[in-house]
TrEMBL record:
Pfam families: SIS_2 (PF13580). Residues 36-220 form the SIS domain. HAMAP family: UPF0309. Belongs to the UPF0309 family. This is UPF0309 protein GCM10010345_23140. InterPro entries: SIS_dom (IPR001347), SIS_dom_sf (IPR046348), SIS_GmhA/DiaA_subfam (IPR050099), UPF0309 (IPR022951). SUPFAM superfamilies: SIS domain (SSF53697). It comes from Streptomyces canarius.
Length: 251
């Protein structure tokens, strides 16, 4: 590791990755935003899924001030975050065959909807099976993953494939295998993961593209406003009433 504080070096690494995805994934971001806009315009519903820390980027675009009201979280019990005890159970569930199919069969997802699947490695059974099954149901799939894992690791799905192999659009986060940006001679393992920063930025870039694409077509994007600004609750109430049949995170 070169000169500079660990904080400076982490910021440099994160900024470098953000610049790479901005430049190298511009076409994929446009394609993903267009796919979601097409889905909204056609009356479809939007869902996002991630397991473990990948779920953070999915949760970041659900019920979010400045975000699309129509983005729903597809939750798989036990794998949404580290709130499950023991936390290692979530990692184990990602490798269970059949879990994704069971979740999709009991979810609101249907043909014509769109599903964003976030998985850094894209190698576990859960995201691969989810993409495969969703597409077989007529759902469009956007995958957010690090493509490097496909060439440097092996798949844990019976097909030997990765998430990236079963998507309509793939967004490559460029994160190195192992998800740790820094090393020090005095520390025995690499540290400082940047996947959350980069993946969340990719997701927000797609959401922004979706909103602007809808507006370009003369469709008002169903955006939420902060409840902490005057009129925010009233605004959100109007949006949720208008699009209530496509919002699943409220009763």
């Amino acid at each position: 590791m070169s000169d500079g504080t660990p904080a400076d070096l982490f910021f440099d690494a994160a900024i470098g990755l953000l610049q790479r995805v901005r430049d190298e994934e511009a076409g994929a971001i446009t394609a993903a935003g267009t796919l979601l806009a097409d889905t909204v315009a056609a009356g479809g519903r939007l869902f996002a899924f991630g397991a473990g820390h990948s779920s953070l980027a999915a949760q970041d675009v659900v019920y979010r001030a400045g975000g699309l009201a129509l983005m729903n979280l597809l939750a798989v019990p036990g794998v949404v975050g580290v709130d499950v005890t023991p936390a290692t159970l979530g990692s184990a569930l990602e490798r269970v065959d059949g879990l994704a199919s069971a979740v999709l069969e009991t979810s609101p997802l249907r043909a014509g909807d769109a599903l964003v699947i976030i998985s850094l490695s894209g190698r576990n059974a859960l995201p691969v099976e989810m993409a495969l099954t969703a597409r077989s149901l007529g759902v469009k799939v956007i995958g957010v993953t690090s493509v490097a894992y496909a060439s440097e690791t092996t798949s844990r799905h019976s097909s030997g494939t990765f998430l990236k192999d079963h998507c309509d659009v793939v967004l490559d986060s460029k994160i190195a295998v192992g998800d740790a940006e820094l090393t020090l001679d005095t520390i025995p393992a690499p540290f400082a993961p940047a996947s959350t920063v980069v993946t969340s930025a990719l997701m927000q870039a797609v959401m922004a593209t979706t909103a602007a694409t809808l507006a370009d077509r003369g469709v008002e994007p169903p955006l939420l406003r902060s409840g902490n600004v005057d009129g925010g609750h009233e605004w959100n109430g109007r949006v949720m009433t208008e699009y209530g049949d496509r919002i699943f995170y409220r009763h």
